[in-house]
Design a protein that fits this description.
The protein is an alpha/beta fold and about 240 residues long. It has two domains: about 140 residues, HAD superfamily/HAD-like (Rossmann fold), CATH 3.40.50; about 90 residues. The chain contains ten helices and eight strands. It binds magnesium ion (MG). The site of magnesium ion has 7 residues, from loops.
Length: about 240
């Protein structure tokens, strides 16, 4: 499975370079705790249990996921309203308030993983061409790219909303690779999503490195085998020495 050094690497953004999902539960708890006093029957633990159940259902459908990530503030309102339904709480205005407060707080706590930016700089110094390939809206993704000074790390940046389609549409990977003036067999991809950064790119002949941030290994239900598994982006350097 070993390969020569790549000519190009495609990088995912959220939960690969930036810690994003990892902060979700913590932020939900903080936000909901602010509201528990003003609504009888609203309890943080009960809310979290119902929220997790509803989120799993909501984000588990690929088409709902696509619509949701292209309008996260609306998706979060739908998620909190659905959670309230599960709890038997009829307070749609408060559901929206909680969702909107979460949307604000969530973006504030986004951070690069330790060593992530240094790793990008290291890869760039090796003369490897680099693309950032990220799903989501232009405003949200560009906002994070600018905030953390990521633009100068990459030769090309592809954002789902700007390009018109997102991962796992094959055109996304092929276009990015073409922009880097290389071919799938000379390219690697790094990311945390087994469909977006492993299954589809592998079908195209791209060498895939999966980030197992939770350290839990491949899920039993996974029907893919990444070419490499690393615990965090900074471990990528070990393959490029
Ligand atoms: Mg990701």
């Amino acid at each position: 499975m070993s390969r020569p050094r790549p000519r190009a690497i495609l990088f995912d953004l959220d939960d690969t370079i930036l810690e994003y999902d990892g902060s979700a539960a913590r932020v939900w708890r903080l936000v909901v705790a602010e509201f528990t006093g003003s609504l009888a029957g609203l309890d943080v633990e009960r809310f979290m249990a119902a929220l997790n159940e509803y989120r799993e259902w909501y984000w588990g459908d690929p088409e709902r996921h696509r619509r949701g990530r292209l309008d996260l503030p609306l998706a979060r309102r739908e998620v909190v309203r659905g959670t309230f339904d599960l709890l038997g709480v009829a307070a749609p205005a408060m559901a929206d308030e909680i969702a909107d407060a979460y949307s604000v707080q969530r973006e504030l706590v986004v951070r690069p993983f330790p060593g992530a930016i240094e790793t990008l700089t290291y890869v760039r110094a090796q003369g490897i061409r680099m693309a950032l390939v990220t799903n989501g809206t232009s405003a949200m993704q560009r906002g994070k790219i600018e905030r953390f000074g990521l633009e100068s790390c990459f030769d090309y940046i592809l954002i789902e909303e700007e390009f018109g389609v997102g991962k796992p549409d094959e055109r996304v990977y092929l276009h990015a690779i073409e922009q880097l003036d290389t071919s799938p067999s000379e390219a690697w991809i790094v990311g945390d999503n087994l469909e977006w950064e492993v299954a589809t790119p592998q079908r195209l002949g791209i060498f895939s490195i999966w980030i197992d941030g939770a350290g839990a290994g491949l899920p039993k239900t996974a029907n893919v085998q990444p070419d490499r598994i690393i615990p965090r982006l900074s471990a990528l350097k070990d393959f490029l020495r």
